[in-house]
């Protein structure tokens, strides 16, 4: 690959005329020179250029001095070159007042040609022609015959190979870009596109099949080509390029690297997995799918329109043969209720049968409530409910609970204490009640039972522990003491 150098990265003054404030004047002059060059008139005088510019609508105030200054700027930037015209010089004064002929430089010509092709890109000859693929396949097969007489055939073989590959890159890329552009996608959604759909799909399928057939064979030729043959072939090509007059001032190493890189890139284009060749196949498949999809939508749309038109005609004939009352009924059937209201709710159903129409079921009334702010439903005054029986029941339950607690307390008290290490075997219910009291006593100095007995918790000395036996198991715990105090 060509290495970047500072001169390559520097600003190119040949492009300044495209961005300068007077770019419109500079571009008009160069385009006029380019169009004359296309007609083999390469040299123009200032008067010819000025006369042409004055015919343009935006150059009514353009003067000869301005034209001369513009031509001088273009000469300084390297877009034009000037040669003194002495053909009509008759006097010394005329010789001193130099008359120049202006001609596009090689770089100026290339820039204008590029801009001209860019502006007229719609006239591109892009196509998916498989002949370029066939050409490359034939050239790879003929390598052995070329190596029999490389000095005569190698350069021509290389030129044909690079030309065919450049056509592939240019033509195929432009054609794919054209089909995937928004402009062509907008054309694909029009009904007129149906006329061209079959031809386009057939064209794409034909190329796809041809390319898919040649690609494995080209890959095989590239991969099975011995390296010594490649080196020998490229050696003759490089040597011929170095000796060509056009490359007399170019570095030999640069030419060698340039040709080897081109060969490797051509090989990679076909051989690399997920490379450009496979990508081209995928793009064609995507375009075929897209074209088919657009065509299917258009066809479906046109069919629906035809069917709907016939339906409307049939309905119109039905309406025309009925009187007004029958038309109302038919309208209700065809178009439905004009102002429908939907009522939903959890209504009881007499049957779950799906064969019975809603019109066969008995009718019923559904009172509707207003949701307006001004009209509100009156609130009905309801007397307070009587809860005396429920209160009495809850009081009896409370008394029973207190009596049970007192009985439990009397059964566990030793003196005025309940010592956990001296408790007999107890049930889980009793253990639960004792732990509730213990939790209350640990969170405050003096706690109460549900019946109002006051007690405090005495913590064990020296972290003494005990075993609390229950009917469902034993529990190791600190030897707490609940001491009941007088009220």
Task: Describe, in plain words, how this protein is organized in 3D.
By secondary structure, the chain is α+β, with helices and mostly antiparallel strands. Helix content is 58%, strand content 8%. It has 17 helices and nine strands. The strands form three sheets. It has a four-stranded antiparallel beta sheet with strand order 4-9-6-5, with helices on one face. The protein has a three-stranded antiparallel beta sheet with strand order 1-3-2. A two-stranded antiparallel sheet has the order 7-8. Strand 5 and strand 6 form a beta hairpin. Helix 11 runs antiparallel to helix 14. The radius of gyration is 51 Å and the shape is elongated. The N and C termini lie far apart (105 Å). The mean pLDDT is 82.
Strand order, largest beta sheet:
4-9-6-5
Number of strands: 9
**String of helices and strands:** HHEHHEHEHHHHHHHHHHHEHEEEEE
**Major sheet description:** 4 strands, antiparallel
Q: What does the overall shape look like?
A: elongated
Helix content: 55-70%
The proportion of strand residues reads: 5-15%
